[in-house]
Design goal:
The protein has about 230 residues and is α/β, with parallel strands linked by helices. Helices cover about 45% and strands about 10% of the residues. It is built from 9 helices and 7 strands; from the N terminus they run E-H-E-H-E-H-E-H-E-H-H-E-H-H-E-H. It has helices at about 25-40, 55-60, 80-85, 110-125, 145-155, 155-160, 175-180, 190-200, 215-225; strands at about 10, 45-50, 65-70, 90, 135-140, 170, 205-210. Strands 1-2-3-4-5 form a 5-stranded parallel sheet, covered by helices on one side. A two-stranded parallel ribbon has the order 6-7. Strand 1, helix 1 and strand 2 form a beta-alpha-beta unit. The longest helix is centred in the middle third of the chain and has 18 residues, at about 110-125. The protein starts with 8 loop residues before the first strand and ends with a helix. The mean pLDDT is about 95. Bound molecules: ligand 8Y4. Ligand 8Y4 binds next to strand 4. The site of ligand 8Y4 has 16 residues, from strand 4.
């Protein structure tokens, strides 16, 4: 990922896929912390994808620069673990729980509801002492959302940007891209993922979370000089 041009490496030890087994603190620590130490030692900017305050604290001690939490630091102690350091925090929206979030996602106005939730989480973080400049918001594509919800959030990403925090977009290889293209194999969704990343950057996304770094970096280089 680094050789392909990634600015940040996101390291995670617990899947959010429906049906994935829960991972204990001990197992998650064993999976994540030694890798964080090694990558930080090599000078890379490391983000740690975790929902557990214990792992957040240990990742921060190991030198992680960012905590990426699909629960927006909602676990008891998570905000405090991050506030006690200088890490950046990615606050992601999810409706429901990983196991059941795709059963029947429903919103009256998905963009307003996701925005309200993320602003509320950002306020909680700031009240606990996390400076606003450390906070990134993320609509959480695919996390308790239908194809139409994901598309509305993308088309109206400017409304999330206007909340005043940098926005992160994670469309890479996700199921909705399979639904839109007919590609059932995730690794065959590279072009769709690149197009989605550009659509988000065009609307102001500051960070894109991707698997196919080289393809995305090339597309961004060309798109940036050609404008829109
Ligand atoms: C194939 C490969 C199909 C991967 C689906 C997936 C986000 C995230 C994930 C996101 C932030 C995933 C940890 C889901 N997605 N963190 N994490 N934003 N901040 N699925 O969108 O990659 S995991």
């Amino acid at each position: 990922l680094i050789y392909e041009g990634a600015a940040i490496l996101d390291v995670g030890g617990e899947s959010t896929r429906p049906g994935a087994p829960e991972v204990s603190v001990d197992d998650e620590r064993t999976r994540v912390i030694p890798l964080v130490i090694e990558l930080v030692n090599r000078g890379y900017c490391v983000s740690v994808d975790t929902r557990k305050p214990e792992i957040m604290a240990e990742a921060i001690t190991a030198g992680a620069a960012i905590i990426n939490d699909v629960m927006a630091l909602a676990a008891p102690g998570a905000v405090e673990a991050c506030a006690a350091s200088n890490v950046g925090v990615v606050l992601m929206h999810m409706q429901g729980q990983p196991g059941t979030m795709q059963a029947a996602p429903y919103y009256d106005d998905v963009v307003r509801e996701v925005g309200d939730y993320l602003l509320e989480r950002a306020r909680v973080c700031e009240t606990a002492g996390i400076a606003p400049g450390r906070i990134v918001l993320d609509p959480g594509f695919g996390f308790g959302k239908t194809v139409e919800h994901n598309l509305a959030l993308t088309r109206r990403l400017g409304e999330l940007k206007s909340l005043g925090y940098p926005v992160l977009a994670g469309w890479s290889r996700k199921r909705t891209l399979g639904d839109l293209t007919g590609r059932t194999v995730a690794a065959e969704r590279v072009s769709a993922s690149v197009a989605a990343a550009l659509a988000c950057v065009a609307r102001g996304a500051r960070i894109v979370r991707v698997h196919d770094v080289a393809a995305t970096v090339d597309a961004l280089k060309v798109w940036r000089v050609m404008g829109l």
